[in-house]
Design brief:
With 417 residues, this protein is α+β, with helices and mostly antiparallel strands. A hairpin with a 4-residue loop joins β17 (308-317) and β18 (322-328). α3 packs across α4 (142-155), α6 packs across α10 and α9 (399-405) crosses α10. 46% of the residues are buried. The strands form four sheets. It has a six-stranded mixed β-sheet, with helices on one face. It is 24% helix and 31% strand.
């Protein structure tokens, strides 16, 4: 059974440096897969190490399964926190064969050696390595070593599994296969999982809930669809994938449904478009339009429904079609523009922008905001309460509402999964 996790105002300050964690608060429901997403230096590894007990909090509190494990004078060591960890570099004992590496995690349970061997063998079968149990780590491939590390993490039946970028050292094809295996196995085990990565496609494919960190602050905590459809800050929008950004003028008042009419400040603009208002709201006529790749459609320059005109700067074949980079007259480049047909380099083209993937923020919007108070991610039953931040500070809508409002976005996240 997965453990419930509560992190309250967690702060970590290293001597003589800025805060690695700055007042992070969140809850993770039993059996939920939480993915912490952020660039290097965002604090995701520090938060994971504080959950594990490897690092001591400077202030704040962490509870696992209702037991306070960190806070004030309390700091339980890792072995007393009922958790297991999957490391980026596998961390296998080189002098032990695969079966012995997995069985090592059962020693603290006081089981007889024969029982440990049996359980280790069963877990290796589950990860597809039953016939390789007598091989040393040096005799296994990178993917096989990572599966041994995953088997070791799951065999002890702990309530919490922590994953420290376990796929970053694998090649692309193996990384995707291992992502599916990790997702299946931790959910089958019912374990609460906290997984860190800097790869947004990996995060969206794996997570029940995504937490985005920037400079030690938790800036958004929501289901993947909500993070993609309604990024809480310009930083979240940029980090989770944009085709491009455009300076725009706001042409009217905010409409019912949270949209507004805008026009690009560029000679490339053909006609205004309707965009969704970001979490900051709007405070004037100047704004920044952030465009998701899913929102851009390539067309002929003479099409009457174009919003922008430009020329193809580059084109790349992606198997299912072509991705184009289109340069506008103002010098701005819109990338990741998908089309089934190939447009030639320097060919004039038109671009149509769909409202669902166009988010507008004030021109001077702060790049960082924090989540106020405790937000919950998941309840162990598959239904998730997901908070976003900014002016609304409220609770995000359910997944089916997003699918109805923005089917292109829901389909894009589903493709990653």
């Amino acid at each position: 059974m997965g453990e419930h996790i509560a992190v309250e105002d967690a702060t970590k300050v290293y001597s003589g440096t800025a805060k690695a964690l700055d007042g992070v608060s969140l809850e993770v429901g039993q059996g939920t897969v939480l993915v912490l997403l952020g660039p290097s230096g965002s604090g995701k590894t520090t938060l994971l190490r504080c959950l594990a007990g490897i690092e001591r909090l400077s202030s704040g509190r962490i509870s696992i399964g209702g037991t306070v494990v960190a806070g004030g004078a309390v700091h339980l060591p890792p072995e007393r926190r009922n958790l297991s960890m999957v490391f980026q570099d596998y961390a296998l004992w080189p002098h032990l064969v695969a079966r012995e590496n997995v069985a090592f995690a059962l020693k603290r349970h006081g089981l007889p050696r024969a029982e440990r061997r049996r359980l280790a063998g069963e877990m290796l079968e589950r990860v597809g390595l039953g016939r390789l149990g007598d091989r040393y780590p040096s005799e296994l491939s990178g993917g096989e070593q990572q599966r041994v590390a995953l088997a070791r993490a799951l065999v002890g039946d702990t309530g919490l599994v922590l994953c420290d970028e376990p796929l970053s050292s694998l090649d692309a094809d193996l990384r995707e296969r291992m992502r599916i295996e990790i997702s299946s196995l931790v959910r089958l085990a019912g374990a609460t999982t906290v997984y860190i990565t800097h790869d947004q496609s990996e995060a969206f494919a794996l997570a029940d809930v995504v937490g985005v960190l920037e400079r030690g602050k938790l800036v958004q905590l929501a289901i993947p669809e909500q993070v993609y459809a309604a990024p809480a800050t310009p930083f979240v929008a940029r980090f989770t994938g944009l085709a491009g950004e455009l300076a725009v003028r706001v042409l009217g008042a905010r409409r019912h449904g949270g949209t507004v009419e805008v026009e690009a400040v560029s000679r490339s603009s053909v006609r205004p478009l309707v965009a969704r208002v970001g979490a900051h709201g709007l405070d004037g006529g100047d704004a920044v339009l952030m465009v998701r790749p899913t929102a851009v459609r390539l067309g002929a320059p003479e099409d009457t429904d174009n919003h922008l005109l430009g020329r193809v700067a580059d084109v790349a074949f992606r198997g299912r079609g072509y991705e184009h980079a289109v340069e506008l007259d103002c010098g701005t480049q819109i990338s990741g523009v998908f089309a089934e047909r190939r447009a030639g380099r320097r060919e004039p083209v038109g671009l149509r922008l769909d409202t669902s993937g166009c988010i507008v923020f004030p021109a001077g919007a702060a790049a960082t905001a924090t989540i106020g108070g405790m937000h919950r991610s998941g309840n162990g039953s598959g239904a998730h309460t997901s908070g976003d931040l900014g002016a609304r500070g409220g609770v995000a809508g359910p997944e089916h509402a997003l699918a109805l409002e923005a089917p292109e976005i829901a389909n894009e996240v589903a493709r990653w999964r």
